[in-house]
Amino acid sequence: MIRFTPILLAILYALVMYRLSVWRTHRELDAKSTELADPGLKAITDRLAAALGLARIPVYIYEIDPVNGLAAADGRIFITRGFYRKYRNGEVSGEEMASVIAHELGHVALGHARRRMLDFSGQNALRTALIMVLGRIIPFAGVWIANLLTGLLAARLSRGDEYEADEYAAALLTKAGIGIAPQKSLFAKLDALTRSRAGVAPAWLMSHPKTAERIAALERLETRWQTAR
């Protein structure tokens, strides 16, 4: 029984961290967000809603500056004030903002938003268990190895989710009559922003696949759809 104690403790830790993470995230979003009331964007999100057979898609402005879009575990979609500001300044078009919203809807529809919270807790639990086990075998390098392994796992899960959400968004945007072009142009704009700011990436690109690879995947998707017609 003693040999399994680190694993049992890690599982208990994961459950506690999951509940705390959900509570903390919802409290933060509730305190710092209001529903989007922009008529121009509402007209575009109404097209997405009609394509999904919904009356509307409620989108919220999250009052933080980093350029980001978020899908909460409860299904709500958030655009940060920093991202919305770029739209208001004319740096990002309404269709490009719609591609962000469609992408985040993909995370909700495909179960990524809820699973990510579980993954985060599970990864922390795995890291804790590995540190406990490897720390006994390799006292000094155990922590470094545990962090490396869980980091690689997290990156792989995140990249897979992003490609799936991109594909969902492409299908939704096409069905809504908007098309895939805004997705690709937004990726290019954010990538250019990264280069202009000495490698500081907008939050929406962090932990994501490389921009060129995402655009190439969308172009392969377009080709596949055209061939299937």
UniProtKB/TrEMBL annotation:
Residues 38-221 form the Peptidase M48 domain. Its cofactor is Zn(2+). Keywords: Hydrolase, Membrane, Metal-binding, Metalloprotease, Protease, Transmembrane, Transmembrane helix, Zinc. Binds 1 zinc ion per subunit. The keyword Oxidoreductase does not apply. The keyword Transport does not apply. CDD domains: M48C_Oma1_like. Coiled coil: none annotated. Gene3D superfamilies: Metalloproteases ('zincins'), catalytic domain. It comes from the Bacteria. The chain crosses the membrane at residues 6-23, 124-146. Belongs to the peptidase M48 family. This is M48 family metallopeptidase. It comes from Pseudodonghicola flavimaris.
